Amino acid sequence: MEYLVTAEEMRYYDNYTIEKVGIPAEVLMERAALAAFRTIQQLFSEHNVLSGTVLIMAGVGNNGGDGLALARMLSEEGIEVELWNVGDPVRASAQWKLQNSILGHYRIKRGSIPSRNEYTVMVDALFGTGLSREVCGRYLEAVELFGRIKGYKLSLDVPSGVDSDTGKIWGSAVRADETVTFGLRKRGLYFYPGCEMAGKITIAEIGIASEAIENRKPGMFQLDGDFKEMLPKRVPWGNKGTFGKVLLVAGRMNMAGAAIMAGKAAYRIGAGMVKVLTASQNREILQISVPEALCGSWDDLQNSLEWADVIAFGPGMGTGEEAKALLMKLLLDSELPLIIDADGLNLIAKEEEIRMLIAEKGKKGRSIVLTPHMGELARLLGVEVTVVQQDVLNYGRKLTEELHAVLVAKDARTLIMKEDLPVCMNISGNSGMATAGSGDVLCGVIAGLMAQGMDDFHAAALGAYYHGKAGEAVAAKIGEYACMAGDLIR
């Protein structure tokens, strides 16, 4: 697990480390500059550069102070460095003024505009975190000129012009080849479109006290590492019942594919048994495609509820009266964990009675997981898709608070949310997964994990991560263009 922090959270950790722990701000800045210096050294080494040129575009805040300290370190190593000052020194931060005073003892070329059209490395130390308004005036001119000059572009903390919380671009932004971010990962480096501007992301440890983070945990994290180690442990003496029974209610007439995808995925993630209740016209193709699965009709629902450990509803179901009646029965006649996907979500948006029942059940503690893509999320919220996409985090929180359910808000950056818990951002996957059936696969994966005993939030978070990793494996073999949902299951 890796934390993703806002600018405000990062300021808190900085201040706590400085004021409570007693590590001076100058030490933190020195460590930040040293991390950037080592990155440049490594770049020179990798490209066999013996005597390169470095341009540093420095603002007058603490990010600019990092740039000034870096200029001094480069100069001490005999590297030709040029400092491009942007901003009014009268309005500079205290740390910038200290670094500027120190730099006065070094022979470093300074100017209000770069003297070359090309440098070996170009360092962006203009804004850092905390930008919350359009880039304009001299700063806009500087960002655009920085982009036109040739060289390897290295941003310090966050590419200038990118909102460090949301990834929004404030009019114009530096497109970095690499970003060295200090202490903790900033959210805006992972949200679109900010992540496209960040390039390679390097995390630099600068001495932020772990006590500060323990005192106030960040509100967002991402999974990172060997997903196989995160899967539910399998006991060697187990049987098919030990590893959980998934009841999948999916597939109206001529919609067998959704049921097949979800059922196979539940098996592939490790569920011991899967039973699919589907339209009678689908049974033959389903039995051929997933012979391992039990198969039944809607009339088998009551007995199946007594058999199952977890229920998944929605793929390929439609929003007709029959689907509505089935979902109502699942809500009224069972307290089993329930994943609602696809058309099940459209029923919630359409039927106030179902919506109120989900909120009532969720408030009483029933595990309910909702897995909407952006269009379905917009319908659930009653707003336009473009409005939701601009603020998924807050709109998602609003829905989880209303329905007391786990929300898996599916997008290029999927957010997994539950009341009173940090948000999980999933960054695994790629554009090849934007294909029909991919959501059905994720539904089956989450159901299979929950059947094996994982709680709703962690099953949703790990399911999204595992699903994305499968997409990455497919892309590595056949490319993103060729990816189909069945490839994810394999």
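(ticket continues) Second input and output from the same batch:
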Amino acid sequence: MITSVRIVGAGLIGTSIGLALRSHGVHVDISDSDKSAEALAKDLARAEKLDNPEVIIVAVPVSKILDVLKTESALYPRSILMDVGSTKYELQVKVDELSDLRSQFVGTHPMAGREVSGPTAARNDLFAGRAWPIVKSTYTSSAALEKVKEVIGLCGATTYEMGAEEHDRAVSVLSHLPQILSSAMAGQLHGLSNDELVLSGQGLRDLTRLAASDKTMWIDILRSNRQFIIHALNSLGETLDTVLSALIEDDEKTLEKLLVVGKDQQQRISGKHGAQPRDYSFINVVVGDKPGQLGALFIECANVSVNVEDITLEHSPGQQTGLITLALSAKDADVLYHHLVKLNWQVHRA
């Protein structure tokens, strides 16, 4: 098992990795050019000075990764090196040209983050259940690959091996385009007064959440993957042009197709651990506004040995009832529904 890891970069990702590894007893060292961020990250992760770390994780802006890799490789020539940058192709091409470094390096990209940045936003469970792609080059040693997979496993993520170009093409749509759309949509709000903005619903908040992200980091990312992002934007532009024409011509069928295709594709978005989403059945349970209702419901779930995959709770202050929605397999949902009906719970199939 890995016992020591050095992290260069005390931002959200680097510090969160440090916290996750420390929770498994791994000795962690953290370094950053911003000494204030470094000091906070070290305190949070209970970091210590390491002379010969087994693995070095480079968690700096994309444009600075290569220089840091060269520096760290010179300081710790026996260490495995990995990065956590959002783009992989340009970096991998350059690393493959460095004979002293390429066999010890593995490019990776944790598909996790928050719209807030810095060590104050770090969480030890940030990567739990998330996909974490690994880009393996022809030069990558099996020893380096296994060490990196162990780090990712300790962070609670699931590894996926893919090519650098394949990765960058995928994230241009899955990650980079959403950031652009979120920022662009938030920018459209400039024409609305504060009185009008009070009408904002959760849909707008969800769509514009990413607009609060760190601009410096994202400029770096967008520039490094501009080839694939340009293609993604052209494709999106064609779709928006079609919608615009449909609205001008009052073309109901085209608008319906947009919404149907969008809903169908949304259902394909991966679930836990990057796996395909399961086809759950849902049960709605209405409960009174009194203590112990949620606990009592879970006791009944245990009594009939059903597994609850997910749960949502809707309840407003002052409301006399609350709504609990349980997600289960179709078989478990059927068992639980009939069990609760017999016990006179207020239960409804969704």
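Agent notes: The radius of gyration is 24 Å. The chain has three domains: 4-163, 168-266, 281-349. Closing as not reproducible unless the customer responds.
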